[in-house]
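ENTRY TYPE: protein
WANTED: fold as tokens:
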Amino acid sequence: MTQPTNREPGDPERDASGSLTNRSSDPPAGNESAPARSSSPPEQGDPLWMFLGPQGLRAGWSALLFVVLLYLFANIFGIFVSFLLTNVLHVELAEETAASSIVNESPWVLGLAATLAIMARLERRRFLDYYLAGPAAAARLVSGLISGFAALSVLVGVMAWGGWIRFNQAPHDWAHLFRYAGLWAVAFLLVALTEEGSFRCYLQFTFTRSINFWWALVAVSAMCLWDLIHSGSHGAVGVYAMSALGLVPCLYLHLSQSRRSSFGQAAWASSTLFGFIHTGNNGETWIGILAAGAIGFVFCVSVRLTGSAWWAIGCHAAWDWAESYFYGTADSGFVARGHLLTTNPAGSALWSGGTDGPEGSILVLPIVALLLLALILLYGRKRRDFASVPVAENVAS
């Protein structure tokens, strides 16, 4: 157990000379998350005040710059990979295959790595400070893999028991099946790295260091408004539901002035955003969007309890792999080519998920709740609140 001290989690310490020292590599001493502070931020009225705060570049600008750089680098790497395949290797890949998914996701992972490296440099932090440096990363990743596969298997099992999913005759070309198993594992690991690296690592970290209830409310309201005026958003009711579910708890944290409020408000905003981005998928339903936001919240809780996003990365990858490859169901409307088992939805879409797959079934919500409970039972008792924001070095002069 870490002994309590008078220092706030994530605060800089002073050495014998009185100078600030960076202790971002140490676990926080207290039990609550609080933003780190740096010395001499620009004062109000200074031209830099709109851009720099006590922790360096303000969170809104950081998030905007992150999105722009990620999109830019992903497209640059995508053009390079496409040129390499088409003009050098003369390879043409079919859509919705494991190979094409790997090719499509690789530029995003490379772009994310480049973007995080630049943002870490600009914010004077370490690359791993973005919730990637927690203890026992390999064990957390394996635990997440097991949890994700088990949770999806329970969901499919309940649906099969109720007659809402039917198994068809499985193929017998084992050589191809093993090949597909490996390729889809790589593809979904890349998907998990991209999405968790963006939402549970950088954005959750950045929102935590400065967001409050009102800014979180503005963010989720903007998403709801966008979906309301865009008819092409699929399952927009799920975004409304996720926004409503987080409203009262986050308002309570705000009114009680809890030191946990910043992480909670950040989780509300980032999880709603995670559901929001899925409204562009064909075949999505409101339950599927709500489920995406809810499991995004579970992943945020895992960051707080385990100290890093590695459990979330493993759970995300294994869930998608089990859904698309192992059981051969639709995944947010996506049906993979090359899978072990073959299943089809049956009966009411409310229970079967319809074109959305198991994630669109109402049964997914209690499964997500059970996953959250298992996470708390597994890591809650050993909880050391790692999810503080490490202090930046020499943010302002």
Summary: Confidence is low (pLDDT under 50) at residues 1-38, 391-397. The first helix runs from residue 59 to 88.
